[in-house]
Amino acid sequence: MMWVPAGATATLDLRLESVIEGVLVSGTVVAPLRGECGRCLDEVSDVGTVEVLELFYYADRAVDVADEDDARVLVDDHADLEPVVRDALVLNLPLSPTCRPDCAGLCVDCGARLDEVGSDHSHDRLDARWAALSALAESAPTGTDQGRSDPDESKEKK
Q: What pTM was estimated for this model as a whole?
């Protein structure tokens, strides 16, 4: 429900440190986010900020960690930061963003925005599972006509 728009500019404030195994990349990524409210489907804009901490191994040191699928390796002294930034941003996206914390959402019957139609908005609807029973109740006689008797009356007859 949220994404980074295509062509959007992300701001990276990173520190690259040489360590024995390779290059440690750490810092902050800030990117614009767009999406839809999880309740009313209105457009939502936000800014995503995530921390990044990733070790890029030197090619000769990567042999020691070849078992790990997540090991990142420097290629010709270059670190490909795109997957690192993408993974960090995606994992930090809200699952169900809202346009406002008190957004009421949409009516489940007609789709109207509940914030606009008011709190007295409702629909009369009959549960389809009870429709056959309702039809029986309307056509059947009531009370003692169905063979039921009043418990007080049966005590008097004895």
A: 0.65
